[in-house]
Structure formats: C-alpha cells, structure tokens
Amino acid sequence: MRAVLPLVLFTLLAGCSSPHLITLQDGTHIQTVDEPDFNEDTGFYEYETESGDEESVNKNTVKKIREL
Question: Which residues does the annotated region (Disordered) include (predicted)?
C-alpha cells in the first residue's frame, strides 16, 4: 500500500498542470508549462517556460492561447 500512495499522488500532481501554446501576432509560438496568468496591472501574460524560467508577454502581441 505504501508503494502505491506516492504513485497516486504523482499522477494527480502531473494531471494538474496543463501545457499551453501562446501564438503571437507575428506567428511565433511559445509553449508554457501551465496556463498563463494575466496581470491586469501590467497588461502582460505571465508564464513559466519548459526550462523553468518565468517570462511575460504583452497582451497586445498575443493572437491566441490554447491548451495542448
């Protein structure tokens, strides 16, 4: 039973993250680890890249965001 619990927890945590693809107006694609957060104060979408870096992009340059 003890060996099963970590496996179940890992599966649940892995299921929580949902990668997204940001498409910019110029056609550039950015893949994120999870759904980008929109910061209303700055007007930027904030996200984590696959390499673990925290990045942001101006909402005026974003064409669409979709879940992968």
Answer: 48-68
User: Which residues are paired to 31 by β-bridges?
Assistant: 21
The per-residue pLDDT for 31 is 96
Contacts by 28-37 with C-beta closer than 8 Å and gap 24+? Answer: 30/55, 30/57, 31/68, 35/65, 35/67, 36/65
Find out whether 47 and 36 touch, Cβ atoms under 8 Å.
yes
pTM summary value: 0.74
Question: How is residue 22 written in tokens?
Answer: 């940001």
Domains of the chain: residue spans and CATH? 18-67 (2.30.30.100)
| Of residues 30, 29, 47, the one with CA closest to residue 38 | 47
